[in-house]
């Protein structure tokens, strides 16, 4: 059967970047002005983009970076999502890979070697590093390395003060950073965003204003959630071969907002716990360390954070405290 509802699936993904970014003119101009200062005056200034989930932080950064792509001969902007790369070393490796092909496996490279390779690859161009989900990095070595080498950064995080857990040398250098704060969208702003997504992603007359209003109301200022609800409703209606979205196509229970995949550390921790059924904290840490590559390192604090995330996703269950703490696999069937 031909599609009856969905015209362009990619428009129904939160990662889709429209030609016009609605209701973020002020934040776009703030970031653009900041980057113009960085590039025109060659000042090594940093910016922190912060705000709740679904407020347009990543889209705004990508939108502004795209505008600077016309200056590729003199400027190189590198974007990395730290949720996907998670370790400082792998994030730095990902930055280097965007600048030039790397023939040596990362196990054979040192941290400073990668920074040297990056600087050699620039050929007089200015480098800007954009780290999305910067708070997911396992340590501050990458951020400190960029600060030491005067590489300007744009750091994106839900937590404005995420860097306060870092070394004082990093804290003091980041505190003067330009901070751009994103507020939740209003109801009318969300309806505008949803209307535009429906216009480009769905066939005409497949969704009414009442449906859009209901989705915007349920999303409560979160555009990522609103788009996920729209996508779910559209796929439900199409799977039933109807020609319009109905009110009951909108899920009453929360839907996943395209939750990021677990990073490698979280996947390792989860697989170890699942293989054992239940495992003590000390044994879990030891098995994790035994699984890591030679030049990979992770702090106990980062492990605890990753375990907390797995608990929040209800993938594992923890019992006890301190040295008697144990982790248990959750039956997902």
Mean pLDDT across every amino acid position: 88
- As a whole number of angstroms, the C-alpha radius of gyration is 22 Å
Number of strands: 8
Structural class, please?
alpha/beta
Q: What order do the SSEs take from the amino end to the carboxyl end, as H and E?
A: HEHEHHHEHEHEHHHHEHHEE
This entry's quaternary arrangement is single chain
CATH homologous superfamily annotation of the largest domain: P-loop containing nucleotide triphosphate hydrolases
CATH class of the largest domain: Alpha Beta
Query: Domains counted in the coordinates: how many?
Result: 3
At CATH level 3, the topology of the largest domain is Rossmann fold
Describe this structure in words.
The chain is an alpha/beta fold. The protein has three domains: 158 residues, P-loop containing nucleotide triphosphate hydrolases (Rossmann fold), CATH 3.40.50; 64 residues, Helicase, Ruva Protein, domain 3; 66 residues, Orthogonal Bundle (Arc Repressor Mutant, subunit A). The chain has 13 helices and eight strands. The strands form two sheets. The protein has a five-stranded parallel beta sheet with strand order 2-3-4-1-5, with helices on both faces. Helix 4 packs parallel to helix 5. The longest helix has 17 residues. It is globular and about 55 Å long. The model has no long low-confidence stretch (mean pLDDT 88).
């Amino acid at each position: 059967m031909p599609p009856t509802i969905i015209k362009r699936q990619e428009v129904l993904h939160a990662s889709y970047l429209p030609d016009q970014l609605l209701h973020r003119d002020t934040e776009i101009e703030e970031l653009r002005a900041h980057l113009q200062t960085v590039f025109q005056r060659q000042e090594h200034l940093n910016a922190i983009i912060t705000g709740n989930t679904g407020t347009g932080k990543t889209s705004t950064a990508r939108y502004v970076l795209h505008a600077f792509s016309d200056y590729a001969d003199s400027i190189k902007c590198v974007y990395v999502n730290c949720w996907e790369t998670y370790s400082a070393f792998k994030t730095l490796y990902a930055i280097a890979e965007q600048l030039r092909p790397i023939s040596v496996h990362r196990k054979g490279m040192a941290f400073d070697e990668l920074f040297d390779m990056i600087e050699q690859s620039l050929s007089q161009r200015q480098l800007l590093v954009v780290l999305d989900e910067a708070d997911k990095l396992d340590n501050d070595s990458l951020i400190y390395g960029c600060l030491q080498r005067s590489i300007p950064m744009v750091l994106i995080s839900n937590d404005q003060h995420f860097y306060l857990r870092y070394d004082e040398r990093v804290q003091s250098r980041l505190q003067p950073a330009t901070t751009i704060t994103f507020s939740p969208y209003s109801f009318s702003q969300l309806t505008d965003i949803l209307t535009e997504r429906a216009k480009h992603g769905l066939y005409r007359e497949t969704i009414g204003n009442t449906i859009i209003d209901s989705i915007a109301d349920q999303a409560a200022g979160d555009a990522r959630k609103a788009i996920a609800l729209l996508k779910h409703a559209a796929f439900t209606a199409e799977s039933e071969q109807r020609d319009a979205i109905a009110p009951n196509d909108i899920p009453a229970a929360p839907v996943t907002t395209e939750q990021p995949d677990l990073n490698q550390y979280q996947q390792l921790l989860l697989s170890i716990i699942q293989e054992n059924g239940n495992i003590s904290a000390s044994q879990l840490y030891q098995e994790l360390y035994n699984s890591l590559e030679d030049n990979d390192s992770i702090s106990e604090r980062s492990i605890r954070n990753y375990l907390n995330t797995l608990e929040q996703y209800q993938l594992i269950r923890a019992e006890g405290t301190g040295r008697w703490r144990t982790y248990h696999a959750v039956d997902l069937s």
